[in-house]
Amino acid sequence: MRLLRPLDRYVLSEFWKVLAATALGFPLLVIIIDVSEKLDTYLGRNLPITDIALAYLYGVPDTMFLVLPAAVLFATVFTVGAFTRHSEITAAKASGISFHRFIAPISIGALASTLFGLGLAEVVPPLNARRLELLQEKVFRNTDKRSNFAYLSESGRVYKIGAADVTTGRLEAVEIERQGTGPDYPSYVISARTGQWVGPTGPGAPEAGGHWLLGSGVLHVMPDSLSNLTVHFDSLRDARFTEPPGNLMANPKAPAEMGYRDLGRFIAAMERSGTDVNKLRVERMLKLAIPVTCFIIMLIGAPLATSTQRGGTAYGIGISLATTVIFLMLLQLTQAIGAGGLIMPELAAWIPGAIFAVIGSVLLYKVRT
Predict the structure, then answer these.
(1) Kindly report the CA angle at 231 between 228 and 234, in degrees rounded to 5?
(2) Cβ atoms within 10 A of the Cβ of 90, count?
(3) DSSP H helices in 189-310
(4) In this structure, how many other beta carbons lie within 10 angstroms of the beta carbon of residue 164?
(5) CA-based diameter of the chain, in Å?
(6) DSSP string spanning 258-282?
(7) Is residue 207 classed as helix, strand or coil in its secondary structure?
(8) Which of 3, 42, 65, 121 has its CA 20 to 30 A from that of 258?
């Protein structure tokens, strides 16, 4: 016996058609608007057209991740609305198929969209970093000195530095943290009073071929939560700490350039240094909350779409846009509340979804089956 009946496959196929069109159409619309606004800026930087085009291609997954809940909402409203106007839901009810059972394939499609969104959340960060690099958005500070900052390396290690001087290639109050996985790949923390760059420096110097020599410090190796091997050193060369002094002047990575785990490690390191990380904690939890919203928002779209028989397509668009705007406004409000520390940041990320889940459950319960 097949899992999906012919009616289920028909409903799911109609849902996928609209979902695919909206999930791809929204990013293309965003690209067109963004290009029209920023093309002069990019050309002013003498960027090749191929780099600009490739950068926008890399940005498609990020935009798709953000608009996926809206795409699911539009797909649900238009699919169920069409079934309502053509009396297909009425015919199904007459055959003994309840409304809840009729939209079960759409629930499967929304759940698949949630899983797809969670996958996108891990794929997007490196693509965003590459996009910003191609568009030369990663500006460097016009200074040779910087103090009290954290730097996330490409390998995921976090550097906390008290002071850095590019001209002398010298660091002060250095702390390096690597999150391990167990005895074979232990966690460690290096704390050093100083760091000296050994290698080429100055304008035009190659990025490779140098390393940092750390002085007067302590190395803590932690193979598990109960063990801590401590080694004091006068000087230490960390083979993985090879970022040139100029690279440490770069603006820190944005949350969009870090995955869920990397952002978690970065937040933990920043918290230990006394930095306010509430906003970062909200951003991290949104990497999970936004994909889950795909399923939640379907609960609202399906019952609302049953009232589109008179209004037609325009009414469906109105419902979808109004719901999306309300959700975005609520999301912005709770983000601000969470970043301000009025409520737990992780909770703030889930409040819009929780509110919509309650409303959707009530509407779904009250719909005539």
Answers:
(1) 155
(2) 12
(3) 260-272, 278-305
(4) 26
(5) 83
(6) S-HHHHHHHHHHHHHTT---HHHHH
(7) coil
(8) 42
Do residues 262 and 125 lie in contact, with contact meaning Cβ atoms separated by under 8 Å?
A: yes
pTM of the model: 0.71
Contact between 58 and 127 under an 8 Å Cβ cutoff? The reply is yes
The length of the chain in residues reads: 369
Q: Which two tokens stand for residue 109?
A: 């499609």
- The tokens of 193 are what? 């009073």
How far is C-alpha 369 from the chain's CA centre? 38
Residue 161: how many other CB atoms lie within 10 Å = 19
Q: Would you state the structure tokens that stand for residue 353, as one six-digit string?
A: 């979804």
CA nearest to 201, candidates 190, 193, 191, 212: 212
What is the identity of the amino acid at 71?
A: A
Beta strand segments in 86-186, E: 145-152, 158-165, 170-178
- Whose tokens are 């097949």? That residue is 2
Instruction: Encode burial over 179-195: b for 16+ CB neighbours within 10 A, e otherwise.
Output: beeeeeebbbbbbbebb
Please name the residue that has the structure tokens 């730097």.
Answer: 151
Buried b (16+ CB within 10 A) or exposed e, 305-314: bbebeeeeee
What are the tens digits of pLDDT across the range 8-56?
Answer: 888 899 999 999 999 999 889 888 888 888 888 888 888 888 988 999 9
345-362 residue pLDDT tens:
999 999 998 999 998 888
**In the Cβ-directed half-sphere of 40, how many Cα atoms lie within 13 Å?**
2
Q: Facing residues of 235 across strands? A: 215
Q: Is the separation of the CB atoms in 285 and 346 below 8 Å?
A: yes
The span from the CA of 64 to the CA of 54, in Å, is: 16
Distance of CA 149 to CAs 189, 196, 270, 305, 352, Å? 17, 17, 9, 51, 33
Q: Which helix (H) or strand (E) covers residue 177, if one does?
A: strand 170-178
The CA distances from residue 76 to 12, 63, 160, in Å, are 10, 20, 47
Q: What is the C-alpha separation between 59 and 61, in angstroms, rounded?
A: 6
Rg for the chain (alpha carbons), in Å? 26
